[in-house]
Amino acid sequence: MAMLADAVLIVHFLFVLFVVGGLLAIWAGAALGWVWVRNLRFRVAHLAAILFVTAESLVGMACPLTVWEDFLRKAGTEEGSFMQRWVGRLIFYDLPEWVFTLAYVLFALAVLATFFIIRPPARKPDDAPSASSPAGGSG
Fold first, then answer.
1. Helices vs strands, H then E, count in the chain
2. Do the beta carbons of residue 12 and residue 66 sit within 8 Å?
């Protein structure tokens, strides 16, 4: 069970890395001219990720990944693993819940503001395929 719990912890860490690192990458990418940081799918997924975390926190819901990991750890009999000690230290802190809620709300606002300040390219009507043009044809 410890291996499954570690796998959930790693997924959790990657999710946190996507949210936090994504915002840093967007800012850096905008300054350095990286085109991929303006990709609409990436940006919507990034915004949705932090909005989900913020909504969970505002309604008092525990993170499903944390709940799942805790369940798996309690089901096992092994002591804490290397992953649990080191990766857990990176993403879990012993602070009051309101601190996390405030941090998530402020971070979500920063991501939302960034969405409008560093905009993904607007889709032009010419970019959409025409229903009247034959597939693969030039019209």
1. 5, 0
2. yes
pLDDT, position 48: 97
Averages of pLDDT over runs of 10 residues in the chain (139 residues) are 87 95 97 95 96 96 90 74 70 85 97 95 63 52
Residue 69 is encoded by which pair of tokens?
């990991």
How far apart CA 6 and CA 28 sit, in angstroms, is: 31
- Count the Cβ atoms, other than its own, within 10 Å of residue 91: 16
State the pLDDT at residue 131: 55
Check: CB of residue 48 under 8 Å from CB of residue 82. no
What's the distance, Cα to Cα, between the start and end of the chain in Å? 59
Do residues 38 and 119 make contact, with C-beta atoms less than 8 angstroms apart? Answer: yes
DSSP for 38-87?
Answer: G-HHHHHHHHHHHHHHHHHHHTTPPPHHHHHHHHHHHH--SPPPHHHHHH
Q: Which amino acid type is present at position 91? A: I
Reading the block at residue 126, the tokens are 């010419």
pLDDT at position 128: 55
